[in-house]
Amino acid sequence: AQKVTQAQTEISVVEKEDVTLDCVYETRDTTYYLFWYKQPPSGELVFLIRRNSFDEQNEISGRYSWNFQKSTSSFNFTITASQVVDSAVYFCALKYNFNKFYFGSGTKLNVKP
Amino acid sequence: GAVVSQHPSWVICKSGTSVKIECRSLDFQATTMFWYRQFPKQSLMLMATSNEGSKATYEQGVEKDKFLINHASLTLSTLTVTSAHPEDSSFYICSARDRESYGYTFGSGTRLTVV
């Protein structure tokens, strides 16, 4: 069975603080993909990153960075120097069985000025 | 980049009526589209997978007679909520898989309120 756990329901930080959003996944597939999406209040899903199961290299994109560790089945997301515009719900997702996505429950990030 | 247009973005309907939601890939062809449902403050749950020219595959617990899906072309899938009831009120979001790049793009979602 597939499972994605985002244990942090809601996080509040003050602008310029760094924040890490946790994601732990379970799957029996040897080939899978992991994603992070941002969902602002308007509702659309904004793609942030995709990682396949064979690529454990960490990635940095501007203020965003991702730490993928297969040994702990984790795919954590860090925002450095957070900004108010980062406030949103962030979803970690697992793509399995060729086409299906399993989304975590989401972490609501509040960045206060 | 790839764009998926979902229409309408919000709709209010009376209980017992049917509502159609469109999901259209604007600049790519999508052999497969997906429909998700999201209750307030909850995650997205896959409802069904639609393949162009064939019947949709529904996830367990999703009533196929209530949520009619049609994927008549490579750029359009529709979800019709039939005989809507207040408990069908939710945020519905579609996703399309690019047949060339295999990338997935989500629509902007439709907020359905049944009164």
The gyration radius over C-alpha positions of chain A equals: 14 Å
Derived structural class of chain B: mainly beta
Distance between the termini of chain B: 37 Å
Q: What fraction strand of chain A? A: over 45%
Helix fraction of chain B, binned, reads under 10%
Strand elements of chain B, count: 11
Mean pLDDT of chain A: 93
Largest interface: A-B, 16 and 19 residues
Can you give the helix content of chain A as a percent range?
under 10%
Number of strands of chain A: 12
Poorly predicted runs of chain A are none
Major beta-sheet overview of chain A: 6 strands, mixed
Write up what this structure looks like.
The complex is a heterodimer of chains A (113) and B (115). With 113 residues, chain A is an all-beta fold. Chain A has one domain: Immunoglobulins (Immunoglobulin-like), CATH 2.60.40.10. Chain A is built from no helices and 12 strands. Chain B has 115 residues and is mainly β. Chain B has strands at residues 4-7, 10-13, 19-25, 30-38, 44-51, 57-58, 67-73, 76-81, 90-98, 104-106, 110-114. In chain B, 36% of the residues are buried. At the A-B interface, β11 of A face β5, β9 and β10 of B.
